[in-house]
Structure formats: C-alpha cells, structure tokens
C-alpha cells in the first residue's frame, strides 16, 4: 500500500490512516478506498504502539462495514409486527412524538437512555448525555453498570485514582482475572516484551489459558475467591515483612487493622477457600513483593462478582503497601487530558431519584448514572417508579445484561423502545423504531492511550468513510434533540466543530491533530504525585480503612465474602447445582454480542461451547460435541460440550454474547455486589443435564 494520509478531505480514493475503535488497543490501520469502497486494510507498520499489528477484528472491518445484514434505513415496527423502512425524518419525528407522550403521561423519568459498550469512551456519548439532560430524565446509564466502574470505584475510594500498570518498566507483572491475549492483543505484545526483558509473570485465572501457560506462576483458583487469595497474599507479605514500611507509615491509614484482619487468612486456610495450594500462594506473594517495581492488571473477572468491589480493594491495597503506587514500572497515575467539558447544567432537576441511587449510593456518587442492572424492577414492579420507554444505543441488553430472560420480557413490555445499532440485534427486534448507526469509520472522535497503555496521548480518529445511509451517533442525538426543541443545547455544526471546542484548553485543533497521526503528548508523567499533592481521598492517604465505606454501612476493610452463590455460601442449593459456572471470557474474534454474522470471525469460533473437564464429563456420561442443558436458578440453555483439561473438574466455562445459547439466561440480577450493583457473571452455581433424546432418535 502507498503512504497513508490522515483524512480523505473529500476524496474517496486513496489510502487513509484510521484508528481502530473496536477495543482499547487503538491500533493504527491503513484503509485503501476506491470510489468510497474499502479495497484493502492493513496495520500501519510505522505506528509506535501497534507496529503494524491488527487483530482478526481489525482485519474484518471491511466485512463489518459491508455486511449484507447491516441496517441501511431506519425501520419502524408496524401494527402487525412487521418492519417498514422509513425516512430518517419520519423515524425521528415519530420518536420525538412518542417520547413527549410518555413524558406528559408519566414524567420524564419514565424514559431511560442507555449507551452500551460500543458508545462508551467515544465522543458521541457526550451528546447522548446532553440529550438526556435536556429531556429531563435522571435515568442515564452505560455499560459501566457492569464494566469498569466497580474497579474504578474501588481504586478511587482506596487512593483517589485509577492507576494504569506500567508493564514495560516492570520487574513483575500480575494478570489478575485479565487475559489481554484475547481482550487487548497490542497490550499483550508489550507484556511479552517486558517478559523477554526479564520481568516475571504471574497469572491468576481458573483456566490454564495460553497466557497462563507462559507464566512463571499460575494460580488456578476457584472462580469468585480472588478476594480471599488477595488476603492470603497480604498475610504472607505482612508476616514476612515484605512491605514498604516507610510508605505504609507515612501514606496509609488502617494498616494495623488490616494486619489484624488478614492474620485470620493464613495460606493454609486460603488454600481451602481458593483451591490454590498454600505453597503457591506464598510463592506468588514473594515473587510479587520481592520484585519491585511490580504491577497488577485488574481484569473484568474481578468485577463480575457479588464481592467484586471489596476484592479489588484488597488487590489495590496489595499494590499500595508494596510501594508500587505511581512509580515507574508500578501502578502509575496518568494525568488526564484537560479537555473542555460538553456537560451543561440544567436549571431544572428532575426531583425523582435515579434508578439505583438509593440502593447503590456510592455507584451513583461516582458515576451520576442509573444502575441498568435493576431497570427490570422499575419496568415490572414500578420500583421506585415505572420506566415506560427506553433508548438503547450501542448495546445489546438481551444478550449482555444479567438475567437476560427477564431483561428480554421487560424490554418487550415497554410502551416504546428505540434502538440505535448497525444490525437487527436480538434487542433491536423488540424495538418500535431502529436507527442504522454509522460505524466508527464514519465519524470523527478523539482517542487516548492514557487509560490502556499509561501514555498521556490523545489523537484524532477522523472519519474515513462517508456512510451514505447511516447517521453517526452524534448526528442521531443532535437530530433528535433538534426535533424536540432542544436544538440550543447542540450548537456545534459538526462533530469536528464540537471536538475543536473540546480541544481549546490544550491549544489544539482538529486540523492540528490530523498532522499528529500517532497522537499528541499532552502531558508528562512525573511520578509520586502524592508526595506533592497527597492522595485524593478524605484523609489525603491510602485508605486501607475507609470511613466513607463505613458511613454508607459497608465494611471499611477489604473483607472477603463468599460469592452469593457458592458451595460454601448456599450448600443447600449446591446440592442440586454442584458446578461452578463462569461466563464471558473473551474470544479474540468477537466483541460481546457482535460479529457472529461476519464469516472470517465466525470461522474462528463457529459456535458457543460449554467447556467441561474430561473427568467431570466422564462422571456425567457426556461426550465431546454432545448438546446438553446447562441450568441455574434463573433458567437453562442448550449448548454443545467441549471437553478440556484446562479447567478444574468442578468448574465450567460458557462464553457470552451468543443468541443460540445465551449465557445471561443463567446469570442473576437480584443479588448484586452491594457497593457497585455489579452482577455475578463469573461465579454461579449450575448443573449439566443430559438432553432427553426422543426414543426414535436413540
Ligand atoms: N476480543 C474482545 N476483546 C475485548 C472485549 C470483547 O468482548 N472481545 N471486551 C472488552 C471489554 S468491554 C472488557 S471489559 C475487556 C475484558 O477483558 P479481560 O479483563 O481480559 O476479561 P476476560 O477475557 O473476559 O477474562 C479474563 C480471564 O478471567 C478468567 N476468569 C473467569 N472467572 C474468573 C474468576 O472468578 N477469577 C479470576 N481471577 N479469573 C477469572 C477467564 O478465564 C479469562 O481468561 O475486554 C475488552 N476487549
Ligand atoms: N455473562 C456475561 N455477560 C457480560 C459480560 C461477561 O463477561 N459475562 N461482560 C459484560 C461487559 S464487561 C460489558 S462491557 C457488556 C457489554 O455489553 P453491550 O454494551 O451490550 O455490548 P455489545 O454486545 O458489544 O453490544 C454493542 C452493540 O452496539 C452495536 N454497535 C457497534 N458499534 C456501534 C456504533 O458505533 N454505534 C451504535 N449505535 N451501535 C454500535 C453492535 O452492533 C452491538 O449490537 O457485557 C457484559 N455482559
Ligand atoms: S486489537 Fe484488534 S480490535 Fe483492538 S484496536 Fe487492534 S485491531 Fe482493533
Ligand atoms: Mo466491559
């Protein structure tokens, strides 16, 4: 391919630089267009982070853009339940009218706006926020209801920052419930490089993944017992004096109380809880504590538990007391870019509480968002008041939210549902109106490597394609707002106009950023920020003991509680549901529920499979490839068996995002993490039943 340029500037033939928006990897891709059609895609070899790499999803971008099943026109459901193509104007006017009707009848709070994983960290979410504020509902939620925020809250409450692991300068890297080989391959490349340079690798994962096989130390624990494991490691580190005394004395509060608490978690006891041998626990604790600087990646597997928040606190404290905060090679506090806010203050505030505000006050305090996992309660029981309408943009709740059976019937029962997506998803099928969104190649937005790679850089991913029939999410929110009389809140003429406004405090412009294809370094990391400013907590120190938690009725120390569903917490249920189920470990070819219809990606993982240990399969008399029924207290799915020796015989693994075998039929939205409201997607009780075969099939 010839040299890529940064943006098409009206031309539709040429080679253009784009930034892949499908995961946090921010890979640089070169896209060759001929008359507006993609003819070739490849990684940019000169890109400083991705260095020419793109994963199978990046290579499938052409398939995604041109997918025959992509929606190209707004669709309206007719009285007979059939879909009718309508103009953008008609669809937007219809939605504006219906939303006004609901507002007049029940109040603005009866409409919830949800932006899913495809919209978070994108610029267009800022427009979605302006829309919900202008409309007057307090109920705005994001994928943060089940992703990232629990970790963010645990770190913020403990030391006022969400640090980023600085793996390239680290001597010991711990991947805790995190598998970047599938979830962020460019980051795995950096980790591999650090390991080549001599860093030790510790992996904490109930599965012997390929990443785990590369580790110096793999702790194959029982799902959901990470908190106990962290306490066991703290026990060893404190008992053996392997922590940083100066740091602890000067910069922490509550260490003595922690020491007393973890004294009750010796490795031998933790072995009985976690199934990891006491020797392995000691080995990992020593390896980590004696090889500073060391860093810990806190994966989503830690968040998706009923005890996830406190587990992450325990791990955060582990990295604090070993002196690894804000040091090169440790957990660094990366400065955020000072961009102008697109937030506007409304003069009228809706007096109704946000859904989840009373139950999860700290989640609300840290996000100002609704907790989407309990929308079903508002829809079915009118608690605390009814939700009657919803706009869902960039999410597929029927496949991704906990207790999906209930979610599906809740969404189906709404008076009005609007979905903005590329495809007719299982959620879109329930909608009254579906809008065809442009892909990330059809819009302009900022990207940053601050939160993923710890590099304080921002850059511009300029629109590369003109997707004739699809509006970008930005335009959708602006156009809808315009029709509802909120045009004044959307004064920017274009996405780039709004981005220019955002960039002003940095003295940057869209045009300027187009000349910085690898991003602009907006700040320098200086290290040990706390020595200059203290920690951003009420005490100015690392709050091992948190009065803020205590004030809200939560445990002030990072206590371990069994998962709500476990053989130890509910043995009476475990009698009938003896297996431990973990769902949703990432596959490299898919993003959650996306891409099942793209041939090159489908080939990589053609069907959903439940992974079962060979011995357990023998005991249950089930064979490889056999279709079985997996059941939990919520419901059951049919799914094919894959035999493996990579998991413990007591544990089974099911991927999420498949309509054919929806893992979230099995998950729960009743018992949630008490602090964050996160669901327990990674530790539930289940059973496998042999499918009854009709006698003539035998
Ligand atoms: N290809 C791809 N990449 C993605 C995504 C995607 O859908 N597809 N999604 C993106 C998003 S939104 C997120 S949040 C990230 C998540 O990315 P990661 O944080 O890497 O999460 P997973 O790969 O889902 O899970 C990591 C590991 O957790 C293990 N695990 C399961 N249960 C437990 C447990 O109880 N304890 C521990 N310690 N480990 C457990 C699994 O075996 C798995 O190997 O990925 C992002 N990147
Ligand atoms: N059982 C189980 N459930 C889980 C998880 C798990 O590990 N286990 N993980 C959870 C996590 S971490 C997350 S983040 C959530 C994610 O859950 P969701 O937020 O529902 O994410 P997706 O399934 O990726 O749905 C994104 C939708 O947006 C569409 N889309 C893609 N790009 C765009 C765009 O530019 N604009 C618009 N409007 N639409 C677009 C896609 O076609 C897709 O239908 O799932 C959660 N659910
Ligand atoms: S790793 Fe794949 S999905 Fe992630 S940014 Fe790179 S090409 Fe895109
Ligand atoms: Mo996520």
Descriptive report:
The structure is a single chain. The protein is α/β, with parallel strands linked by helices. The protein has 3 domains: 75-145 and 358-457 and 469-506, 3-Layer(aba) Sandwich (Rossmann fold); 149-334, Dimethylsulfoxide Reductase, domain 2; 571-697, Barwin-like endoglucanases, CATH 2.40.40.20. Helices cover 32% and strands 17% of the residues. Strands 5-4-17-16-15-6-7 form a 7-stranded mixed β-sheet, with helices on one face. A 6-stranded mixed β-sheet has the order 23-25-24-27-22-26. The mean pLDDT is 96.
Average pLDDT metric: 96
* Tally of DSSP β-strands: 27
Give the helix level as a range of percent.
25-40%
Main sheet makeup: 7 strands, mixed
Count of separate DSSP helical elements: 28
- What CATH architecture of the largest domain would you give? 3-Layer(aba) Sandwich
Outline type: globular
Low-confidence stretches: none
**Number of domains in the coordinates?**
3
Can you lay out the helices and strands and say which pair or pack?
Layout: E1 14-19, E2 28-34, E3 37-43, H1 56-59, H2 61-66, E4 75-77, E5 83-85, H3 88-106, E6 111-115, H4 124-135, E7 140-142, H5 149-159, E8 164-165, E9 172-176, H6 180-183, H7 185-196, E10 200-204, H8 210-213, E11 217-219, H9 226-239, H10 245-251, E12 252-253, H11 255-262, H12 267-274, H13 278-290, E13 294-298, H14 300-303, H15 308-321, E14 331-332, H16 361-367, H17 375-381, E15 389-393, H18 397-400, H19 404-412, E16 416-421, E17 433-436, E18 445-448, H20 450-453, E19 457-461, H21 473-483, H22 495-503, H23 510-514, E20 520-521, H24 529-533, E21 542-543, H25 547-551, H26 571-574, E22 579-583, H27 599-602, E23 609-613, H28 614-620, E24 627-631, E25 636-644, E26 651-654, E27 684-690
Parallel strand pairs: 6-7, 6-15, 9-10, 9-13, 10-11, 12-21, 15-16, 16-17, 22-26, 23-25
Antiparallel strand pairs: 1-2, 2-3, 4-5, 4-17, 8-14, 18-19, 19-20, 22-27, 24-25, 24-27
The structure holds ligand MGD (2 copies), iron/sulfur cluster and molybdenum atom.
């Amino acid at each position: 391919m010839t040299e890529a340029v940064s943006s098409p500037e009206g031309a539709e033939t040429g080679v253009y630089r784009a930034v892949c928006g499908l995961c946090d990897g921010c890979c640089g891709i070169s896209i060759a267009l001929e008359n507006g059609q993609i003819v070739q895609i490849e990684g940019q070899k000169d890109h400083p982070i991705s260095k020419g790499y793109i994963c199978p999803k990046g290579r499938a971008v052409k398939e995604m853009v041109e997918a025959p099943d992509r929606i190209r026109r707004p669709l309206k459901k007719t009285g007979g339940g059939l879909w009718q193509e309508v103009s953008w104007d008609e669809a937007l006017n219809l939605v504006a009218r219906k939303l006004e009707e609901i507002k007049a009848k029940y109040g603005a709070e009866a409409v919830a706006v949800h932006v899913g994983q495809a919209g978070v960290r994108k610029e267009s979410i800022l427009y979605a926020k302006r829309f919900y504020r202008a409309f007057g509902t307090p109920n705005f939620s994001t994928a943060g209801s089940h992703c990232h925020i629990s970790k963010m809250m645990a770190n913020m409450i403990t030391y006022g920052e969400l640090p980023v692991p600085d793996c390239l300068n680290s001597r010991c890297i711990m991947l805790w419930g995190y598998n970047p080989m599938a979830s962020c391959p460019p980051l795995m490349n950096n980790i591999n490089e650090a390991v080549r340079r001599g860093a030790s690798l510790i992996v904490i994962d109930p599965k012997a993944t390929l990443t785990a096989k590369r580790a110096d130390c793999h702790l194959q624990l029982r799902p959901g017992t990470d908190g106990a494991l962290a306490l066991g490691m703290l026990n060893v580190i404190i008992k053996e004096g392997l922590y940083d005394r100066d740091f602890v004395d000067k910069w922490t509060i509550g260490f003595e109380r922690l020491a007393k608490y973890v004294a009750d978690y010796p490795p031998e006891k933790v072995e009985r809880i976690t199934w990891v041998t006491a020797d392995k626990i000691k080995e990992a604790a020593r390896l980590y504590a004696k090889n500073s600087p060391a860093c810990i990646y806190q994966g989503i597997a830690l968040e998706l538990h009923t005890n996830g928040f406190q587990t992450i606190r325990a791990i955060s404290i582990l990295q604090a007391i070993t002196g690894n905060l804000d040091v090169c090679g440790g957990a660094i506090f990366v400065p955020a870019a000072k961009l102008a806010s697109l937030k506007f203050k409304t003069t009228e505030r809706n007096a109704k509480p946000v859904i989840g505000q009373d139950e999860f006050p700290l989640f609300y305090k840290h996000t100002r968002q609704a907790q989407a996992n309990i929308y079903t309660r508002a829809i079915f029981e009118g608690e605390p008041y009814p939700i009657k309408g919803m706009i869902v943009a960039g999410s597929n709740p029927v496949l991704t939210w906990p207790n999906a059976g209930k979610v599906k019937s809740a969404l189906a029962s709404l008076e009005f549902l609007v979905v903005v997506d590329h495809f007719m998803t299982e959620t879109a099928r329930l909608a009254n109106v579906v809008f065809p969104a442009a892909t990330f190649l059809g819009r302009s937005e900022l990207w940053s490597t601050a939160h993923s790679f710890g590099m304080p850089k921002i850059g511009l991913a300029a629109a590369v394609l003109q997707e004739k029939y699809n509006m970008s999410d930005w335009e959708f929110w602006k156009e809808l707002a315009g029709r509802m009389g909120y045009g004044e809140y959307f004064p920017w003429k274009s996405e780039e106009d709004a981005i220019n406004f955002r960039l002003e405090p940095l003295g940057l412009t869209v045009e300027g950023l187009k000349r910085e294809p690898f991003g602009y370094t907006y700040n320098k990391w200086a290290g040990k920020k706390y020595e200059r400013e203290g920690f951003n907590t009420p005490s100015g120190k690392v709050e091992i003991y948190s009065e803020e938690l205590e004030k809200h009725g939560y445990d002030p120390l990072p206590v371990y509680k069994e998962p709500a569903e476990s053989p130890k917490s509910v043995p009476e249920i475990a009698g009938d549901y003896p297996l431990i189920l973990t769902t949703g470990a990432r596959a490299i070819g898919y993003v959650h529920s996306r891409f099942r219809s793209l041939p090159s990606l489908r080939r990589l993982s053609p069907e959903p499979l439940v992974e079962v240990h060979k011995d357990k399969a023998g005991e249950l008399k089930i064979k490889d490839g056999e279709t079985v029924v997996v059941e939990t207290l919520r419901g059951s799915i049919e799914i094919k068996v894959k035999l493996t020796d990579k998991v413990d015989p007591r544990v089974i693994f099911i991927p999420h995002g498949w309509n054919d075998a929806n893992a979230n039929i099995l998950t729960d939205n009743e018992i949630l993490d008490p602090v964050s409201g996160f669901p327990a997607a990674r530790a539930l009780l289940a059973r496998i039943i042999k499918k009854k075969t009709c006698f003539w099939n035998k």
